[in-house]
Amino acid sequence: MEKKHIGVLMGGKSAERDISLKSGTAIADSLIRQGWQVTCIDVSPNVGEDLRHNHIDLAFLALHGPGGEDGSIQGFLEVIGLPYTGSGIAASAVGMNKVLTKSVLKAEGLPTPPSVVLTANDLSSVMKNKVSLPFSFPAVVKPVSQGSSIGVSVMHDTGDVQAAYETAREFGHHVLVEQFIAGEEFTVGVIGETALPVLEILLEKTLFDFDTKYEVNTTPHAVRATISQARTHEMQQLALQVHQSIGCRGISRVDIRVDDAANPFVLEINTIPGMTNESLVPLAARELDIQYDSLVKKVLSVAMREQ
């Protein structure tokens, strides 16, 4: 591949800024090790000028959350004609929006927990027992468009409704209320058309939340799943179907919970998953003996081929 000037876009203003900076730094260090000319760009309203000033040939996206993972930066890069890694505008927008993701999954006949979209008034009625949810407690309340489990909480009964809503509504007026699947949690990374080994999330809490995902110097939070070959294949195929149905390109990660009857349910897809050395996709890649630099090269290669 022709050696081009790679701009690693990172940071930004989302609630996931800190982990984005860590992902971007790790990616930049890897690209430099592999001989690329690299400039790190902390995304701001001046990002266009930063890209032009540094004569960037291709953007390696390490942005997480709104503004970076929702199609916004992808649309801007399309307008100025700059190639970039990862999914395009539509897939990014759909993947970031949990309601749109669920609509696609349902249309494709893919399993996902029952859910409803509610407002403050709706939840107030639930709390006062005037309106019932279409499924039983416990239930999960999520912001419609956030990643890394930010703003997510579990309601065990109507007494938890107000606190859960107040937590989620910091990130938007509407919230997604989803039936809680009380089983094992797994995650499956996808690179191109290949599903990585299934990782099992080691849950010490009810939820695999932001603090657990990114806390340092703790016991491992994910290991290669010790499940049958048949169940492994089922979850890998499910992750590939989600990746393809959303229209993803390059890399993604699909989170899955399994109920007591071993039925899998897709929770969400991450179109720009974390890329620190200890993030879930790099961990899964190492199970196939794909080391971090090789993983970064694969992500970049897909973007090069798409030009």
Low confidence ranges = 207-220
Helix content: 25-40%
Helical segment count? 11
| Highest-level CATH class of the largest domain | Alpha Beta
CATH topology call of the largest domain: D-amino Acid Aminotransferase, Chain A, domain 1
Question: Roughly how many Å apart are the termini?
Answer: 12 Å
Number of domains: 3
SSE string: EHEHEHHHEHEEHEEEEHEHEEHH
Q: Overall mean pLDDT score?
A: 88
Total number of beta strands: 13
- Superfamily at the CATH H level of the largest domain? ATP-grasp fold, B domain
What keywords describe this structure?
307 residues, alpha+beta, Rossmann fold, D-amino Acid Aminotransferase, Chain A, domain 1, Dna Ligase, domain 1, 3 domains, six-stranded antiparallel β-sheet, four-stranded antiparallel β-sheet, 11 helices
3D architecture notes:
The chain has 307 residues and is of the alpha+beta class. It folds into three domains: 5-85, 3-Layer(aba) Sandwich (Rossmann fold), CATH 3.40.50.20; 95-110 and 182-306, D-amino Acid Aminotransferase, Chain A, domain 1; 115-179, ATP-grasp fold, A domain (Dna Ligase, domain 1), CATH 3.30.1490.20. 36% of the residues lie in helices and 21% in strands. It contains eleven helices and 13 strands. It has helices at 17-33, 47-53, 72-80, 89-96, 98-107, 120-127, 161-168, 210-214, 229-246, 280-286, 292-306; strands at 5-10, 37-42, 58-61, 115-118, 139-143, 153-155, 175-179, 184-191, 194-195, 199-201, 222-224, 251-258, 264-270. Strands 8, 9, 10, 11, 12 and 13 form a six-stranded antiparallel beta sheet that branches. A four-stranded antiparallel beta sheet has the order 4-7-5-6. It has a three-stranded parallel beta sheet with strand order 2-1-3. A hairpin with a 2-residue loop joins strand 8 and strand 9. Helix 1 packs across helix 11 and helix 4 packs across helix 5. It is globular. The model is unreliable at 207-220 (pLDDT under 50).
